[in-house]
Amino acid sequence: MIPRLTLLTVASAALAVLLLILFQTYFSDILPLASGEATQSTWRFQGAYALTILMYLATAVAFMSALGLIALIATRYLPKRPRNSG
């Protein structure tokens, strides 16, 4: 279980970084809608939106799997506390 969760964490973090680099390279000139500038081409705006969603999802998966990995390691390797009988 730990190797699979580690692979999921590393792969999703790497995907998030790759998507961030891709976004910064090809869609860095996309402006927010409230900027008052001229309207950008629709396909570029939608592509940047889809890429942003994928980037946030990959980051969330990496964060949640890292938390699961920490919890799994903590419950497995930390010493157990003795229970009070009384």
Q: How would you describe this protein?
A:
It is elongated and about 70 Å long. It has one domain. By secondary structure, it is an all-alpha fold. It contains two helices and no strands. It starts with a helix and ends in a 9-residue tail after the last helix. The mean pLDDT is 83.
What is the secondary structure topology, with strand pairs?
Blueprint: H1 2-26, H2 42-77
Helix pairs in contact: 1-2
Please give a quick description of this structure.
The chain has 86 residues and is mainly alpha-helical. It is built from two helices and no strands.
Shape verdict: elongated
- Rounded to the nearest angstrom, the radius of gyration is 21 Å
Number of domains in the coordinates?
1
Helix content: over 70%
- Enumerate the spans where pLDDT stays under 50 for 5 or more consecutive residues: none
**Secondary-structure element order, N to C:** HH
Number of helical stretches of at least 4 residues: 2
Characterize the main sheet: none
- Number of DSSP strand runs: 0
Notable characteristics:
2 helices, 86 residues, mainly alpha, 71% helix, 0% strand, single chain
